[in-house]
Amino acid sequence: MNQEVEAAFRLELPNVNIIGVIPLSTGFFSSLSKFLKILFLMPPSFSAYSNTIFKNSLQNSLHNTSYDVIHYDIVNMAQYRSIGKHVASIHSPNDATSLVYFDVAKDLKWGLRKVQMLLSAVLLKRFERIKYPSFDKIHVVSLQDAKYLRNLSPEIDVEIIPICTTEIRDFKVSAVSSEHTFEGNCKIVCTGSFENHAIAEAICDFVKIVWPRLIADNPTTNFIILGKNIPDHMMRLFDSSGNVKVLTWVDDYSQFLASSDIVLVPDRVGPLGAKTRAVEAMNLRLPVVGTLTGFAGMPFVDKQHGLLYKTLDECFEAMSVLINDRNLRQAIGANGHKMIVENFSAEIIGPRYQKLYLDAIDEHKSNLLRAV
């Protein structure tokens, strides 16, 4: 996190006490740490988050301040549980991480990458089974994730709370920076991590197979990709495709998204909970075209809250219909927004988080009394 981003973060969250901002480990020592993690049967992803400065900062904070509960976010932070074992604990992996890794590995062809994913999945599963019972509460976002973890160990106390979205501002599309505006009758946007092959390859398939057909019928339509760490061969594909533009950063993601007409969520496989990209787009009243994975974790009805596709031909048909029917885009966007507000708004989700913290504190106190 650079200084500008850190300053913006502090400005956005003035009531949050930020102890420090510590960069992830990289380079030789990170690679050595990854090897040592595997040697000691720990998930290799933990290596980037194994940081002595962070560990000392956490220990000092716990020594100098009294806390009611500690929230350990993402699976890589769960390795610090032993430091705060005297305090009530919540861990939010959001997903059953090893299950996600197994699913992603299935989607890969045999090779070094598949072997690495399978090794990580096995070590993550071992960590979940052994370490998750030590937390007072484990938080995931879907019933399938909860069932998976409970099957690993009945001692894992799992709570299900979906992701949360916030009240949106009334964006003025005309105010979007000219860098992100495009001439044409329709703008399709897709965002995602290109480090995830299930997203990256799905975007490539869309550009190679669906996009030429779409612009042949709709030559002024534009496709905008927002993502980082895009491999060179993918960049060459995007650069050589008409009406495709790639962005690596936008200052205001919601503002950028609000200027689009259609949002694509093409994930082939992935977590079973609702995707933030889909939830944010629908919250902005934008029609979403996506896969089963893209709409996972929602009370989704096809052609009411968005358009589902299982094949690239179906993707082409869904996009074609929306490109040429503004009224349909608005109707589906309105329906999607209503569904998001009713299921993922802060008013719905907020009280459940509050109860999660209070229950974790009560559970911790009960465990202490049983240990006496």
Determine the CATH topology of the largest domain. Answer: Rossmann fold
Helix content percent band: 40-55%
Beta strands, count: 10
Separation of the first and last Cα atoms: 44 Å
Q: Major sheet: size, sense and barrel closure?
A: 6 strands, parallel
Shape annotation:
globular
CATH homologous superfamily of the largest domain - what is it?
Glycogen Phosphorylase B
Please name the CATH architecture of the largest domain.
3-Layer(aba) Sandwich
Number of domains: 3
- The string of secondary-structure elements, in order, is HHHEEHHEHEEHEHEHEHEEHHH
**Radius of gyration, whole Å:** 22 Å
In what range is the share of β-strand residues?
5-15%
Structural class: alpha/beta
The CATH class of the largest domain = Alpha Beta
The total count of helices amounts to 13
Overall pLDDT: 91
